[in-house]
Each structure stands twice: as C-alpha cells, then as structure tokens.
Amino acid sequence: MTRFFVGVTGGSGHAYTDRLVRALVQCGHDVDISVTSAGAKVMRHELGVDPGDSGELLARDPALWLGPEIAQRVRAFRSDAVEAPPSSGTSLTGGVILCPCSMGTLARVSVGFSSNLVERAADVALKEGKRLLIVPRETPLSIVHLENMLRLARLGAIVLPAMPGFYHSPRSMDDLVNHVVGKILDRLGVENQVGARWKGLPRPDEDGGLGQEAEERIRE
Ligand SMILES: Cc1cc2nc3c(=O)[nH]c(=O)nc-3n(C[C@H](O)[C@H](O)[C@H](O)COP(=O)(O)O)c2cc1C
Fold first, then answer.
1. Which candidate among 29, 39, 208, 212 keeps its CA 20 to 30 Å from the CA of 131?
2. Cα 13 to ligand 1 centroid, rounded to whole Å
3. Contact 79, 55 (CB under 8 A)
4. How confident is residue 186, by pLDDT bands cut at 50, 70 and 90?
5. What is residue 138's three-state secondary structure?
C-alpha cells in the first residue's frame, strides 16, 4: 500500500481525476487530495460536486464526492492548509499527481512558486526526488506553456497530457478517460487493468478495429 497525493486544479478534465482517485483506492492505495480554488469551480461545473471554495467541505467529508467506501482511504485537505502533512518533505508519498494541471499551476510549479498546498506538494516532490506526474490540459499550447513543460520535464517530472488515443476503438467517454488514467497508473507503477491494452492490428477478417457499430455505419 502506498499513499499518493492528487492535486486538483482549475484545468478542465475532472472526469480523469474522479477515475484516477477511485482507481488508486481500488488498486489498494491511500490517497491525499487537495483542490485549488479554481479547481473547486471546475469541479462544481464538471462533476456537480461542491468541495467548498478552498476544498473545506471536501476536507470535512471526502464521501460527499467519492462515496463512503472510497472515502475511507482518502484524506482531503483545504488548498490553503500549507501546514498539512503533504507540505513537508518528511511525508511518505509514492508520488504527487496534478490532475488536471492548469497552465497556471504548471507555471508556478515550474519556477518553484508555491502559493497553496497543491503547488507546495509538487515542489516537495521535486526537491525530495519523488515522483511528480503532471497531467496538463490546454490547447493550443503557447511557447510559454511548452517552455514550462520542458523545464518540468528537465527537472524530472513526468508530463502526461490528457490526450487520449483512438487506436483502441473507444465506444464511450469512459473508454477515453480510462485510456489516460491507465497510462497515469502505469507511469506510477500501479498494476492495473484500467485502460485497454493494445494487442496489435486486427486481421483483415476481423472487426476493422473500429468497433462493430462503426463498421456497420460504414457498410450502410
Ligand atoms: C470551466 C473552466 C475550465 C477551464 N479549463 C482550463 C484548462 O483546461 N486549462 C487551463 O490551463 N485552465 C483552464 N481554466 C482556467 C483556470 O481555472 C485558471 O487559469 C485558474 O486561475 C487556474 O488556477 P489554479 O492553477 O490555481 O487551479 C478553466 C477555467 C474554467 C472556469
């Protein structure tokens, strides 16, 4: 069992966060969470969950988002709780994941400017040589964004954009979300069956790899 820290920011893509936290717990791990103020706004909009402006409602009761079973393995902290355990290099963590990571948080982490618990936890991961995995969500990317990502990659962070592939013939939004989350778990070294694994191109007599529905549409 390992404890991971998931920092949730104001980037779009909280469906990834939701799936990631549940998958980490289902794979037998503990999870610390903190949601930035902008992250709280996006969470309300995308998940229909109100964590409180600084994540104070979630800190009181993680079950309000995750339900009682998953919440048992989750500690949530207000984003202004810079005194919380993830703020210290002494905290035991298997890794810090910023998912989704806004361009604002990405910029601040890339220059060591820690204005809240999420940024501080990432800063601690860098200084302690622990795993830092960043899931940026923005398009198009400016040179500023690209340079910030390059700086983080050079510092040892894993930059894993929320960029699902389509070669596994996804049939639903869940399939796309699982594809990205499976890759995050793989990079964390968490054994998982979340994303579909590529088995090679189908033979000509098999379904063309598009899925039956798409094949039928093309034939019509
Ligand atoms: C609905 C919504 C979606 C957003 N999506 C993104 C996004 O995908 N990427 C991004 O960098 N910023 C996005 N933003 C803007 C950030 O939330 C904003 O820059 C914020 O200051 C980031 O703060 P944080 O890094 O402290 O979470 C979005 C904002 C809203 C309200």
1. 39
2. 10
3. yes
4. very high
5. coil
Angle 45-105-33 from CA coordinates, rounded to 5°: 65
Q: Domains in the chain, please, with CATH?
A: 3-219 (3.40.50.1950)
- 76 — pLDDT class (breaks 50, 70, 90): very high
Report how far ligand 1's centroid is from the alpha carbon of 140 (Å).
Answer: 14
Q: Is the CB of 41 under 6 A from ligand 1?
A: yes
- Please, what's the b/e burial string for 160-189 (b: 16 or more CB within 10 A of its CB; e: otherwise)? bbbebeeebbbeeeebbbbbbbbbbbeebe
Q: What is the pLDDT of residues 85-121, one digit of tens each?
A: 999 999 989 999 999 999 999 999 999 999 999 999 9
Q: Ligand 1: does its nearest atom lie under 6 Å from the Cβ of 39?
A: yes
Q: Is the CB of 54 under 6 A from ligand 1?
A: no
